[in-house]
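Exercise: predict the structure of this protein bound to protoporphyrin IX containing FE.
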Amino acid sequence: MKNAPHTVRIWDLPTRLFHWVLAASVVGLVVTAKLGGNAMEWHFRLGHLVLALLVFRIVWGLIGGRWSRFAAFVYSPGRLLRYLRGTPHAEDGVGHSPLGALSVFALLAALVAQVATGLLSDDEIAFAGPLTRFVSNAVVGQATGYHKEIGQYLVLGLLGLHIAAILFYVVVRRQRLVRPMLSGDKHLEAPAAPSRDDAAMRVVALVVLLLSLALAWWVSSLAAVAASF
Ligand code: HEM
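Solution:
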């Protein structure tokens, strides 16, 4: 590619799969919440899947490929300011940029809060999260209020920003961001260290994912334990 002769693996396969399964699950969560009724059973299933995905991403942020690690996109305020002033560091365009990183952390935090409050929510008709019996009615009320009145709009707002920012960079700045989230590779002007994305790493990711799914399944099973009391 012109002026960008270095093809570098930036997003490892586990990160890419995480991203697109998360995106599809969140869309499913919004749709099933709006449909209500029997669709809420799928809202619960997808909510537990997103719980597993978030646990996976937190672990992967510590042990995953180089550019997926949190340490690779925690930037100092000075570096963010330089980026915003248009004098970026040479590595700012390799993984998540300083601004993109803020939106990633905000989105992940909002999703963690949404899943946590979902586990503690009760519609007082037919559906209650699996952890409601471990806390007081007041906490259930607050969690339900946050989940329905605040959290869902926060997640939707941050998603709107996420997609608008990507469109801005693709259309106005002519930066290819979406393709690397599909193929894993970026075409860069200068060489950069790649993310490890070999078979051994993928096996590690699979083990972490299976453990995360087991944890989410165990959390969901606490509802049945509660029902038997
Ligand atoms: C419900 C929908 C979505 C959610 C929840 C979501 C969430 C996220 C998250 C958490 C990340 C950080 C990835 C990581 O490091 O783990 C991310 C990055 C990214 N997302 Fe999404 N996303 C959604 C939809 C989309 C869509 C529709 C597109 C494309 C049109 C997109 C394109 C990207 C790209 C290109 C990045 C990497 C940005 C960068 O280079 O810094 N996302 N997204």
